Prior knowledge:
By secondary structure, the protein is an alpha+beta fold.
Amino acid sequence: xxxxxxxxxxxxxxxxxxxxxxxxxxxxxxxxxxxxxxxxxxxxxxxxxxxxxxxxxxxxxxxxxxxxxxxxxxxxxxxxxxxxxxxxxxxxxxxxxxxxxxxxxxxxxxxxxxxxxxxxxxxxxxxxxxxxxxxx
Length: 136
Ligand SMILES: [Zn+2]
């Protein structure tokens, strides 16, 4: 658990993925100090609370799927899955996910894995998510 909720840990320039850059720029803090991770002074700064909000918006809300009786996100994250992430993402997201995992000490996982199928997710931008289901 991170002790100081207001400490700046990352910034919007830390990410390679355009969706994560844009989303973090929207919700980040306007602050010209140097980022402790990438050393940029132009990016909007992110505390642990903003990083968790970013994960919630980008992964949980971004993969929410409506069903006949409601809906659920395809990807979730929590501290219990730290170092146990099992999502398979596009190559340009791999480093961003590692950065989020290590900074927030969380792991990302697929909620529908218990249905006996392997879900391969290609998150190719914030709003268009290609999902390939392979029945085992
Ligand atoms: Zn940065």
